Hints:
Order of helices and strands: EHEEHHHEEHEEEHHH
Strand order of the largest sheet: 4-5-6-7-8
Helix content: 40-55%
Number of strands: 8
Number of helices: 8
Distance between the termini: 52 Å
Structural class: alpha/beta
Amino acid sequence: MTTLLYDGSFDGLFTAIFEVFEYKYKDVEIVSRERFHQENIFAEIHEVITQNNKSERVLNKLEQNIGRSGVHQLLKVFLSEDPEQEQLILSAVKQSIQHPTENILQNYADNHILNISKICKSVDRERHRMTAFVRFEKMQDDVFFAKIDPDFNVIPLILKHFRDRYQDQKWMIYDLKRNYGILYDLENCDFFYPDEKLNLHQYQQKFHNEETQYQTLWQRYFTKTNIVERKNLKLHIQHVPRRYWKYLTEKH
């Protein structure tokens, strides 16, 4: 068994996949350095140095064989942070090379392809929920700020939605779990990576006065319109899952 250790990045993973073919490894696993725990003391370790040219060669070949939509599916698998993501993506790449004229991502008889399909559906659901449930709060500097902690790393998948929808105001969306986010300043929309995790207490102290007043009024409205006799908690949870309530002003 040869273990390829990479830096955890998308380009790093596809560099590792390139080197699987370059060095003709057969019995192989790809693991990020962050998650690596050596259990087999006899395993050969191969350190992968991320090289964009190698990554691009694999991605270009993939695009020829499975199209941009197929590559996008593999990106979703990567963003899922599934423990088997590297092996699933490697398997898909190998199959796409072995069968370049077939749509291998529709071969659900293969367990790896079936798992890829299931993961993509789960990531898509999470992306949709984030676009529906994100709530912005106005800060003292007039930037609208939203905090999320999705099950999957969907920030890259929701950037376009919010960039297209909110073009007339400055905003930020921050992933609490992964400590990064996206920032729109009326001109550019890009990722940002703070040095420290968000301090929720300090964050609440930076609310704009209008935001504090708005939240109070909205909570009063929700309380008065929430008729206990007509409450259908099961239906409510179905449409607004409990783990997303933290983002909804009316639930605080």
